[in-house]
């Protein structure tokens, strides 16, 4: 068997590459993560021990360390304990909670916003740390992970899936630092998949309360009669079919009024990819009518110049609902769920209208919503941005939204029942 070279260490693709003498190079994440692994068998079980990153330990150093661990194994010693002594880690191995805090701190600069780090901390605090936070990483086994997951696996499937992924990431982090072996009890394939039902089979889909598109013109008129930045932001969300967070975070520099385009940078998009939205005439008129605050980059700003909160939009809709009921109206309820509509539900309103009443192609509609297309052929087609077709779609939507309520707008090739 050919041994690894310094060039191999830097260039080999993803996988586990043998050097001989129980030493392996583990390459993951398309070559971005490269670390040393000592593989051995003890008490009839195959085990892996992480020896650290290639940035922390050279090929020569990894071989020397592997030789000492192999010698210890032949003498009946546990390589994990010997490794801890040799590297000075025997005295203080962090608990799971401490390791999780270190991982979050190391990843925080690369995450798009502080909210992501907060979500990690909150889910671990609520569902994991009370059960395994004080345990040493090497002591955590499958039964410990299941104790964290089973109480929420069917009740909160989406949260449970994220919790599992985060436990797995923390334990991988521990293995990379030599605090436990490479076998990860939180891994799905080949481990928890055998013990828990598939997430997709227990996932309960809850749709955001949406406005029936037959009432969208009525809702638009109610918005235009309401003062305040939140009402203007909701008008914008309705007319562009964007997510509320994308609208609330919009800055003036993202708009090209001459071309009639709004370019949302990738770091503000759910999928992490830049998205361009053609602006209809009513949207352009709305934007040009808005006041600007000196020192604030936001199009829809809070009283002190910062970004509007999502709750501000929610409260505006709730007040509109209460006002409508007080005036003897129907209120703003999703008849399917009997719940007050939400800003995000306005995207569903757009999707239902476009799919059920117009001639516009499905891939054009999905691209307008910045949805990821599952079909590869469609996705390749969508990469062309379909800008002209999407502009026509958004102009049709704007005419439908801003029309007098009694007016019916026919569309060439519209679907009929």
TrEMBL record:
One of its GO terms (molecular function) is DNA binding. InterPro entries: CB, DNA_brk_join_enz, Integrase-like_cat_sf, Integrase_catalytic, Integrase_DNA-bd_sf, Integrase_DNA_bind_dom, Integrase_recombinase_N, Phage_int_M. Keywords: DNA integration, DNA recombination, DNA-binding. Residues 94-175 form the Core-binding (CB) domain. One of its GO terms (biological process) is DNA integration. Signal peptide: none annotated. Residues 206-394 form the Tyr recombinase domain. Belongs to the 'phage' integrase family. This is Tyrosine-type recombinase/integrase.
